[in-house]
Amino acid sequence: MSEHGGNVLEMALKIGTDAENIIDFSANINPLGMPESLKTAIVAQLNRAERYPDVKYRQLHSALARVHHCQPENIMAGNGATELIYAIVHHLQPRTALLLTPGFAEYRRALQRVGCQISDYAMSEADGFQPDERLLDVLAQSRPDCLFLATPNNPTGLMPDAALLQAIVQCCHQYQIALIVDEAFIDFLPEATGLTPQLAAFPRLYVLRSLTKFFAIPGLRLGYLLSGDQVAIAQMKQLREPWTINAFAALAGEIILDDHAYIQATHQWLAQQQRWLYQQLCSLPALRVWQGAANYIFLRCLKPEIDLQQALLQHHILIRHCANYPALTRDHYRVAVKSAADNQRLITALQQVLGHG
């Protein structure tokens, strides 16, 4: 089983069809597609492919800094947020770490690569797959070198309580625990500011951002890391391999965050389709559904005899099976929120598969 969603080609080969025939609900990509502003810019600047990008990506870092009201020295852009997860772990060299489960697989893999001892803070259905004050006690007692936290979480799509999140930030600051907060999907939450305004006050706070999902550029790949610790950022930039960001991904980062019409259209689409899809999924008695904040919905199939991913593949629909997430089972799944037509096809197929037609 793939560690990530989006393995459409593999699944298409499995059922003997072309990848183009499968509707991919396994990868959480904005169905509005790449912004027209970026398409126009790429076509107009195709000659960027004929020269090396600036190895320091000065224009890109300046554009990101302008959006976040900080200095370019507080930001390191990368080939998706994944590159930066490995970069921060390599920089910190933690001996011990705490991970919330279920959670994104690359945190664990990056930590294992440096020989870190990992402890799990398990979240379960009984606690709504959410951390509570118990996490503060665990941090105070175990005092790991670092904690990874995703807001919203992947795969559940849930945001932690705002007061608890702030208490976690304070607790990590008090005990000198490096806190890496993954905000890869926070752009989908129009009211969420994230933790970037607090970077100056908490030097061991690191915030990961991704532009891949919101702006539908998984083939370009672009993410960035923000920190109040400019020395740490400078050291990571110095150690990285040159040119990990291609010229068109760098161009994307220079312009798309200013495309306010696209950002507004995305928020309007999600507000409508997320609510509709959640309500439709909840209407199916064989599913237990969690109301997430992002552009994907987490669920459990209450009919264990049905492999929902395989059953839906027969309808040329691919969803994310979550069995390989620690703390989850073969009955847990994640579905992206897509266009109205695609969402309707998913519900129709689920009604047939689950016998609720």
UniProtKB/TrEMBL annotation:
Its EC number is 4.1.1.81. InterPro entries: Aminotransferase_I/II_large, CobD, NHTrfase_class1_PyrdxlP-BS, PyrdxlP-dep_Trfase, PyrdxlP-dep_Trfase_major, PyrdxlP-dep_Trfase_small. CDD domains: AAT_like. It holds the Pfam family Aminotran_1_2. Keywords: Cobalamin biosynthesis, Lyase, Pyridoxal phosphate. It catalyses: O-phospho-L-threonine + H(+) = (R)-1-aminopropan-2-yl phosphate + CO2. PANTHER family: HISTIDINOL-PHOSPHATE AMINOTRANSFERASE-RELATED (PTHR42885), THREONINE-PHOSPHATE DECARBOXYLASE (PTHR42885:SF1). Decarboxylates L-threonine-O-3-phosphate to yield (R)-1-amino-2-propanol O-2-phosphate, the precursor for the linkage between the nucleotide loop and the corrin ring in cobalamin. This is threonine-phosphate decarboxylase. The lineage of its organism: Bacteria, Pseudomonadati, Pseudomonadota, Gammaproteobacteria, Enterobacterales.
